Structure formats: structure tokens, C-alpha cells
């Protein structure tokens, strides 16, 4: 989500949404490469899956940091794809879905804190203030 946000800041919404629409296609391609999905070209569903990959998208970014934004958006697309593939495998193997969700949230929180500290090391940025921002988070 963070990569998607930074890609949005560097490009525009129309360009960013194209990358979100590519996530199912990237998941499908990675699943075929990892042999998690079978592409049977001699069947009707297999042909339809292949045609779905050929969909075109359009969008013209208007911001100055298009290369960096595109890299962030590509990283976001790949991250989402691998996340969904890993979640599908974990949900089949791990007996407790609530515990695995809690672990995922905990690890995501730890990663966000580490990344946040790396991006903004100013201690005053981490201080809580009684304002609308805190109320929004609590809500």
C-alpha cells in the first residue's frame, strides 16, 4: 500500500489505477510460472484466461517524477501479487485463520514502523497531538 501511495504522489490517479487493475493479471502470470495455475489452451476457460491478459489500459501521467512513480507502482503490483499468492497458500496450510491474520497485521505494523522511522527520523513527527488527525486514527 505504501508503494502504491508513493506511486500515486509521483504520478496521477488515472495512471495509478491502471496498475491496480494489472494485479489480477500479474497474479495469474506468476501462478502459471510457479505452476500453481494450469493454462489449458485447448479448453474454453483457458482461452478466456489468455484473452483477459491481452486487455489494454490507458492513462497519461502528468507529474514530473513519472519514472520513480512507475517503479513504485510496479513494486506495488508485484508486492500485491505475491501477497495474494502467499495468502492463498497459507490459508490452505495454516489451521487458524484468525491467528495468521493477526500475525500478518503484527508483521505489517513492525514493517511500517521501521519504514516510518527510516523515512522520518524527527521525534516530533511521532508525537501524538490532540487534533483531528488523532481523532481520525482512533475512529
Secondary-structure element series: HHHHHHH
Instruction: Give the distance, in angstroms, between the N- and C-terminal Cα atoms.
Output: 20 Å
Strand composition percent: under 5%
Share in helix = over 70%
Helical/strand content category: mainly alpha
Question: Whole-number average pLDDT?
Answer: 82
Biggest sheet character: none
Are there runs of 5+ residues with pLDDT below 50, and where? 56-61
Number of helices: 7
Assembly state? single chain
Task: Kindly state the number of beta strands.
Answer: 0
- Gyration radius (Cα, Å) is 19 Å
- Globally, the shape reads extended
Number of structural units classed as domains: 2
Topology:
Blueprint: H1 2-10, H2 13-33, H3 44-53, H4 66-93, H5 97-119, H6 123-126, H7 132-138
Provide tags for this entry.
transmembrane helix; 0% strand; extended; 2 domains
Account of the protein in words:
This protein is mostly helical. The protein has 2 domains: 1-93, no CATH class; 95-139, no CATH class. Helix content is 73%, strand content 0%. The protein is built from 7 helices and no strands. It has helices spanning 2-10, 13-33, 44-53, 66-93, 97-119, 123-126, 132-138. The chain crosses the membrane at residues 12-34, 66-86, 98-119.
Amino acid at each position: 500500500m505504501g508503494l502504491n501511495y508513493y506511486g500515486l504522489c509521483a504520478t496521477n490517479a488515472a495512471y495509478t489505477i491502471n496498475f491496480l487493475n494489472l494485479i489480477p493479471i500479474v497474479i495469474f502470470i506468476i501462478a502459471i510460472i510457479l505452476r500453481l495455475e494450469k493454462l489449458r489452451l485447448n479448453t474454453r476457460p483457458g482461452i478466456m484466461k489468455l484473452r483477459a491478459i491481452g486487455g489494454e489500459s490507458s492513462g497519461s501521467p502528468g507529474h514530473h517524477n513519472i519514472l520513480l512513480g512507475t517503479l513504485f507502482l510496479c513494486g506495488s503490483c508485484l508486492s500485491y501479487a505475491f501477497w495474494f499468492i502467499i495468502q492463498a497458500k497459507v490459508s490452505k496450510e495454516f489451521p487458524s485463520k484468525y491467528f495468521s491474520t493477526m500475525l500478518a497485521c503484527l508483521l505489517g505494523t513492525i514493517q511500517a514502523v521501521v519504514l516510518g522511522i527510516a523515512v522520518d527520523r524527527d521525534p516530533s513527527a511521532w508525537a501524538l497531538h490532540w487534533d483531528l488527525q488523532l481523532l481520525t486514527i482512533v475512529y
